[in-house]
Amino acid sequence: MQRWRGLEAVPTGWGRSVVTVGVFDGVHRGHQQLIGRAVERARERGLLTVLVTFDPHPAELIRPGSHPARLTSLRRRADLVAGLGVDAFCVLPFTTELARTEPAEFAHEVLVERLHAADVVVGCNFTFGRSAAGDVALLAQLGQRFGFGVEGLELITDDGITFSSTYIRACIDAGDVEAATAALGRPHRIEGVVVHGDRRGRELGFPTANLSTPPYAALPADGVYAGRFAITTVDGGSSLLPAAISVGTNPTFSGRVRTVEAYVLDVDEDYYGFEVALDFEHRLRGQERFDGVEALVAQMRRDVERTRELLGG
Fold first, then answer.
1. Is residue 268 very low, low, confident or very high in pLDDT (cuts 50, 70, 90)?
2. pLDDT on residue 157
3. Cα dist. 36→60, 79, 104, 110, 116 in Å?
4. What pLDDT, in 10s, does the model give residues 44-57?
5. What CATH number did the domain enclosing 79 receive?
6. 123 within some domain
């Protein structure tokens, strides 16, 4: 899959394509349906599929300081959509100039002049252009004017719940990682670099990998989780290892800084400096303050055994 940042990166001579546009944070089941339809339509017409996304999140520019928690990094987003059959991943820097672009200008300059759209597939709630003035109906009118087809897909629902990035962020913020998994179609993942901590876990018999996470990462509610520790191996492959994961401030030791750390079952490695990821599969309990170290260690043993039961590690 080709990866472009900015319209100037689109190769000269790029042919007609089927385009889908959105933030696509999370690449959840609703996004997967949308992308799948774009890929299907492109294959029917013998064309390539282009996915257009934005960075930073438009909300950050429009309402500074309101950046939603990020479900997926751009790299992770690109990897996920590549697996869905997309041919090109185009990131448009969301600038003041882009935010002020009128809907007709966006359709002409981005979809027609640069990407040569034959068809555009979007969600039925899609908006675009200055002050989000454009919707699917206007896009269809512009398509008739500029020569591309438009398909607006209904959003996926399950038991009355509409799958959306906002819904998934709410699930994660509440610690309901099982509900997030159901909407994402896979466990929620946090990426980061392993950094030095206070080494207290090793002293307690449970050495942990402490993650430095990127800004705006969607961290689950404070507590303990069963999940997987993902790391790239020396041969370029990847390994998923069962892990008990703690998110919180370590109140037993009067901690104040929120940390993310993982105890990888049956592995004694420090992983310092490695880029790794954590997949959150089950919530074991909320954050607790214990009366002493012995009570904490006893609970940690129970957490590890419960993790082993749930993950089969």
1. confident
2. 78
3. 28, 15, 26, 21, 20
4. 999 999 999 999 88
5. 3.40.50.620
6. yes
Give the helix/strand (H/E) hosting 44. helix 29-45
Quick one: which of 273, 277, 278, 264 has its CA closest to 195?
273
Q: Are residues 7 and 153 in the same domain?
A: yes
Count of beta carbons in the 10 Å neighbourhood of residue 96: 8
First CA to last CA across the chain, in angstroms?
35
Alpha-carbon span 125 to 276, nearest angstrom: 35
Quick check: 128 and 28 in contact, CB under 8 A? no
**Cβ(258)–Cβ(210) below 8 Å:** no
Q: Which of 80, 86, 9 has its CA nearest to residue 47?
A: 86
Residue where one domain finishes, among candidates 106, 136, 158: 158
The total domain count for the chain is: 2
Q: Identify whether residues 295 and 202 lie together within a single domain.
A: yes
One domain, residues 192 and 139: no
Same domain (yes/no): 192, 129? no
Are 22 and 126 in contact by the 8 Å Cβ rule? The answer is yes
Residues pairing with 226 in the sheet: 244, 282
Q: Are residues 37 and 84 in the same domain?
A: yes
Pairing state of beta strands 88-93 and 48-55?
parallel
* Residue 148 parent element (H or E): none
* Domain containing residue 262: CATH number: 2.40.30.30
Q: What predicted TM-score, i.e. pTM, was given to this entire model? A: 0.92
Q: Are residues 141 and 210 in the same domain?
A: no
pLDDT band, residue 281 (cuts 50/70/90): very high
Q: What percent of the chain has pLDDT over 90?
A: 74
Q: What is the pLDDT of residue 291?
A: 81
- Give the range of the structural domain holding residue 204, as residue numbers without chain letter: 188-311
Q: What is the model's pLDDT at position 159?
A: 77
- For the cut 90, the answer to whether the pLDDT of residue 213 exceeds it is yes
270 and 205 within one domain = yes
